Amino acid sequence: MPRSPATRFLRSLLLSSAATLTLAVAAQAQAPTGGVVQLETVTVDTDGDANAAVGGSGSTTRNASGAPEAGASAATFQADGYVATLSDTATKTSTPLVRVPQSVSVVTEQQLEDRNVQTLLEAVSYVPGVRVGAFGLDPRFDAFFIRGFSATYSGIFRDGLREFNNGFATFDIEPYTLGGITILKGPSAGLYGSSNAGGIVDLRSKRPTTQTVREIEGQIGTNDRYQANFDAAGPMNADGTMFYRLTGVARDADTDYPFASDDRLAIAPAFTYAPDGDTSLTVLGELQRSRSGGTVAYLNQNRTVTDFPYGDPNFNDLDQTQGRIGVEFEQRIGDNLVFRQKARYQAADVYAEYVYPFGGPVNDVLARGTGNVDQTLKGIVSDTQLEAKFETGALAHTLIGGVDGSYAEFENREGFGSAPSISVSNPSYGAPIATPSTSVAGTVDQGQIGLYLQDEIAYGGFTLTLGGRHDWVETQSKSGTPDDLGPEDKQTDDAWSGRVGLSYLFDNGIAPYASWATSFSPVIGLGPDGSAFVPTEAEQWEAGVKYQVPDTNALVTASVFEITQENGVVLVPSADFSTNISVQRGEIRSRGFELEGQASFDNGFSLIASYAYTQVEFRDGAPETIGKEQSSTPNHTVSIWGDYTVQSGAAQGLGFGAGVRYLSSSFADDANTFENDARAFVDAAVHYDVPQVQGLRVQVNATNLFDEDAQICSSGFCYKEPERNVIGSVRYRF
C-alpha cells in the first residue's frame, strides 16, 4: 500500500532519530565526565584555512555582548563587529566565507544592535541585491526580493531549516530574538531543497552562552511606540554542561496607517546540553502573538496613491499566533566524522478582517466590501547529515551527505460581504460592519524528501565544491466551499538540482571564484483559479572575487550573475486591489552586478557599503509584458552605513551612526507604462555608553530621517513609503 508524504517523512524522521540515539548512547559510554567542558571552535587564518582548536587558543563565536556561545553552534558562525568570516549557511560546513564560490552577505548581531532594527526588512535593507519596500508601508508581512525574485514564501529559513509561509500565514520575525542573518545569493536547492531562485535568508536564533549575559531594555518612539525587551543567558550548573537563554519582547504601538497597530508579545527559550567536547544538544523555541491591520492600502486614483485609507477602524484587524520548537544534535565520532540532526515543528494561525472599495468613488461616495481570512499553516522539517573529512593523495575532502524532509498543512477559509458606503472627502466612521460568513475554503498538504551530497575538495589555494540533490514532492489540494471542498487534486514532482563552484585563495587574501547552480522549489498554496502551484525551477551562472584584507577586519565581495527562472510565484494586487494575491509566471531573467564591503576597525569605526545593478526581464507570459522589466525593481541601488564610537577622552563612550539608501527610478507596472521616481532614505543613530554606570547604554535611532514620501507603485498599484520613525532606548547589561 503506498505511503502518504506524512507517513514517509515520519518514517525517515524516526529512523534518523533512532540513529541519533544509538550514536549518542555509544558516545556517552566513552565520554569523559566531570570538569568544565572546553568546546571546539574554529580559527580562520588569513590564508583561509579552518583549523579546529580546543581550549582557549581558538577564536570563539560570540554575541554582541561578548559572551561565547555554548554547544556545537559555536563553530558554525563567527563574526567580529560588522564582519562575518564563517557561516555554515553557505555550505553546511565550517568553510570560511572567503573560500565559498558563491556570494554570501551577513548581517551581524552588532549591526542589528547599532541600527536598532525593528523588522526583518530593516535588517536586510543595506544588503546589495535585496529589495525591500516594494509594497511601501506594510507591517503585516516581510515581503522582499533577492536578485529580483520574491523570497517571501520560499526564501526564509531559520537555523538552516525552511520556514513555511503562504498567503496571510507568514511568520512574523522579531529581530531582537536573532543572533545574525545570512543571505546566500542565487539558487541553493542543491543543499536546501525548496528555496528561492534569488537566494535564501537564514535567520540565526539567539543561543545559550557559556558566560552569564543579562540585559533589560526599554524603548519609546513615534506612533506611540512602547516596547520592553529582556535577554538572559548563561550556565545552569557548576559542571558547565547545561546552558540556557531566555529572550522576550512586549510591544504596544501604532503605525503610520491610521487603522493598523504593531503590537507583539514574544518569548524565545533555548537550552543547550554539552556533556563533553564531542556531544551537543540544543533546543530552540518560540511563542509569539502579534496584532496588526487586515489592510494597510490607500485608495488609488489616476495612478496616484491618495490619503484615503481602505480600512475602517471597526473592521481592520490581523491577529496572529505562531510557535516553533526545534532541536539540534551533534555527535563527533572520532577526529574526522560528525553526525548532525536538526528538526523543528512550527505553526502559525492567522485571522484577518478588512474593508476594500468597489471601484472608485462616484460623486464622492465610495462603495465598499468586506473580507475576512482564517488561515493555518503548520508542519515539520528535518535535516540529518553525516560529515567526513579525509584525504586522497594531495586532495583534502570535506564530504557531507544527508536526507531532509518536510511536511506542511495549509488551511484557508475566506468570506466576503459588504460594508456601508462612505464619503471620501468627509469620511464618517462608526457604522456597524457585519462579519461575512465563510464562502471559500481550501487545503494544501505537501510532503517532501530530499537526498543530497556535497564534496568540498581543497588543493593548495583551490577549493572545488561539487553538490547534488534529488527531491521527491507530493502535493494534495482541495478547494471549494466550507461544506464541499470538492475533489482532491494530487500532484507528484521530482527533480535534480546542484551546484558546482571553484575558488582560489591567494596569499594576499584575494579569492576569485565561479559557480553554476540550479534550484527546484515546490510552492505551497493555490493560484487564483484554485489549482495548486507547479514547482519553480531556476539556473544561475555567477563569477566574482572576494578579498579578505590581511591583518584587517574587513571583507570585500564583487560578483556578476545571470539567473533564469520558470514558474515563479509573485505577489500582485487582486483585481479589486483589496489585497495582494499570489500568481505564477513564466520565464524571468535576472542579470546583475553586486559589490559590497564590511569592516570593523580597532579605532571604534565600523562600516558597510554596497552597490547593486539588477535588471529583471519577463521572457514570456502576458504579451504586454514580454521583454519588459519587472516593476518596482530599480536598476541601481547604493547603500552605506557607518558607526563610530569615541574610544578615549571626555567623550569616551559617545557614538554616532549614519546611513544612506539610494534607489534609482523603476517601472511602476510590469507593462512599463509609467515610472517610480528615484529616492534616497537617510538613517541616523546617536548612542552613549555611560561611563559612570557600567552596562548602561542610551541610544536614539531614526529611519527615513528627512521623511522621504514619494509613492512606490508595484504591478500598477501604488503605496505610501514608511514615514520618519524615531526610537529612543535605554539598555542595561549586568
Automatic annotation (TrEMBL):
Keywords: Receptor
Taxonomic superkingdom: Bacteria
Protein's name in the database: TonB-dependent siderophore receptor
